[in-house]
Amino acid sequence: MIVTNTKTGELEYFNIDPNATQTAGYCGYSQSMLNISFDGGFIKFIFTKKEMVYYISVTEASLTVLSQGFVYNGIKNKQLFSTAVGNSFKCLSKQTVSLANNFQLQVANSQLQAFDIVNNQFGKEEECTLDRNKRLIPATIGFSLSGLIIIILFSCVLYRRNTHSGYSRI
Predict the structure, then answer these.
(1) Lowest mean pLDDT among 103-107, 116-120, 133-137
(2) Cα–Cα distance measured from residue 93 to residue 87, given in angstroms and rounded to the nearest whole number
(3) How far is CA 127 from CA 28, 41, 54, 135, in A?
(4) A cellular component term (GO) from this record (predicted)?
(5) pTM above 0.85, yes or no
(6) Fewer Cβ in 10 A, N or C end of the chain?
(7) What ranges make up the beta strands (E) of 10-147?
(8) Does an H or E element contain 5, and which?
(9) Cα gap 41→64, rounded to integer Å
């Protein structure tokens, strides 16, 4: 979690230890909820299913910073991490969700699935856009460089054929 210190205006980062959390929630037909609580706060996700797609519709969090004597609260009603029902959303990259002017949730190395879970296993993984782009950029650069090399070689061949203009071979 990222907060803007109310006294200094500087960003402060708070990592949540997964081994020091408790989870609760419910699973419904068209809506599910996951609440992750820890010493000093909680993170809550509400998942909504519409037809063959589900997504996080509400993200809410609270964090008490004892050193500041301040409680940060935030809620975001925005569609996030849209995925086909039966599949899981997976993202290794950092994704930041702004919950309030001074409070952000940063999620990294995550995998979520809210509906149609079979045998307590994640379904087919759907990669987030950031991870896909990280793989796509090197491939695009490689193809571009290959194309450039082919164009240069083709130009050299044409140049060698046309250098004898004005004279004919005997």
Answers:
(1) 133-137
(2) 19
(3) 25, 29, 15, 11
(4) late endosome membrane
(5) no
(6) C
(7) 11-13, 21-27, 31-38, 41-50, 53-65, 70-76, 80-84, 88-91, 95-100, 103-107, 110-112, 125-127
(8) none
(9) 6
